Amino acid sequence: MKNWILVLTSIGILASCSSSSVDETTDGEQRTVNPIMNNFWSIPVVQVLDGGPGRDGIPSLQNLSFTEASSVDFLDNNDLIIGIKNGDDVRGYPHIILDWHEIVNDNIGDESVAITYCPLTGTGIGWGRIIDDKETTFGVSGLLYNTNLIPFDRETRSNWSQILNESVNGDLLGRKANLSMLVEMDWRTWKQMYPNSQVLNLSTGFQRTYGTSPYGNYSTDNDFFLFPVSKDNRLPLKERVLAIINDGSAKVYRFGDFTTENVITDAFKGRNYLVVGNGDFMVAFEPIGDHSTLQFTYIHDGNSDILLQDDEGNEWDIFGNAVSGPRLGERLKTPASFMAYWFSVPAFYETDIFAN
């Protein structure tokens, strides 16, 4: 009962700043809008549900404030964080903030990116914000499909499915998102790898109880769901897994797959993958061209972001960048992949489970 009281209270707080029933036209006039528009959807419209707060009722973040990781005092070691790297620009986005805002619009180096996170499916996915040569921002529509976040872009008001990585409604229907590689790990591991990184801090401009989830113990209770979704019981429903997406299908990897080895060479749907992990993180690469002939060895010592060494003597970081050796500056191809609660992957894709 306490779970439901907390969730309902939190949804009420989020909804209090919602303007979902009105939309502003280009000439400044307001009009009433249906949160589920009547035009065509590429997903079953009867399964597109109104989550409650409405469009922008959960406010995405644009004006951002950061603190150097070595000075952060608001995170516990077990708190999860999502990270991105572009050149020398390395940034982390804590779950305790993403739980309340779900989308962060940021610029990392020369890359305009939206960090999208759905606390109901545990999915953190990075999208490029340049569409048809225009920079846009993404907001939270308040709608859900298979209990997963539906962002909208402010340039066209098209709705997008986060896990499908494509627009499912509006002018951009069928457009695929340009993906940016993210990594997810606990705060203890991140601050050891990137003590000089910039970490999104609590100065968001909003009053929220950061550190207390708006959904109670949803992330750990396998029986606790707020919205209907199909449930595949091959694994515990809320187990965190790494999903690789290929040709409309998925394959997932578990932390337990890395108890004896840290590097998995695997094939799926005609493509070859390198999946690397330990008890703290999992990442995937798709070596192609002359990268496919390299033999990789795990050399991560926990004190830096260097993850692999190959038989040419190159060293590669957790984002797939060659940081030393003859291939300095090269980058391994990354597949469409993301961390997720197990149940959310087969809700969208025919899914295989890796078996050693």
Structure description:
The chain is mainly beta. It has 2 domains: 2-19 and 42-200, no CATH class; 240-353, 3-layer Sandwich (Rieske Iron-sulfur Protein), CATH 2.102.10. Helix content is 8%, strand content 37%. Strands 4-18-6-5-17 form a 5-stranded mixed β-sheet. Strands 7-8-9-16 form a 4-stranded antiparallel β-sheet.
The strand count comes to: 29
Whole-number average pLDDT?
Answer: 91
Radius of gyration from the CA trace?
Answer: 20 Å
Side-by-side strand order of the widest sheet? 4-18-6-5-17
**Percent of residues in helices:** under 10%
Quick one: biggest sheet? 5 strands, mixed
* Poorly predicted segments: 1-33
Sheet-strand content, in percent, reads 35-45%
How many helical stretches? 3
**Which term fits the overall shape?**
globular
Secondary-structure-based class equals mainly beta
Number of domains: 2
- End-to-end C-alpha gap: 41 Å
Chain-wise SSE layout:
Blueprint: H1 2-15, E1 22-24, E2 30-32, E3 48-50, E4 66-68, E5 80-86, E6 89-94, H2 95-101, E7 103-108, E8 111-118, E9 123-128, E10 130-131, E11 134-135, E12 138-145, E13 148-153, E14 159-161, E15 166-169, E16 179-180, E17 183-186, H3 187-193, E18 198-200, E19 240-246, E20 249-253, E21 263-268, E22 271-277, E23 282-285, E24 296-298, E25 306-310, E26 315-317, E27 322-324, E28 336-341, E29 350-353
Parallel strand pairs: 6-18, 20-29
Antiparallel strand pairs: 1-2, 3-12, 4-18, 5-6, 5-17, 7-8, 8-9, 9-16, 10-11, 12-13, 14-15, 19-20, 19-28, 21-22, 22-23, 24-25, 25-26, 26-27
In short:
This protein has 356 residues and is mainly β. It has helices spanning 2-15, 95-101, 187-193; strands at 22-24, 30-32, 48-50, 66-68, 80-86, 89-94, 103-108, 111-118, 123-128, 130-131, 134-135, 138-145, 148-153, 159-161, 166-169, 179-180, 183-186, 198-200, 240-246, 249-253, 263-268, 271-277, 282-285, 296-298, 306-310, 315-317, 322-324, 336-341, 350-353. The protein contains 3 helices and 29 strands.
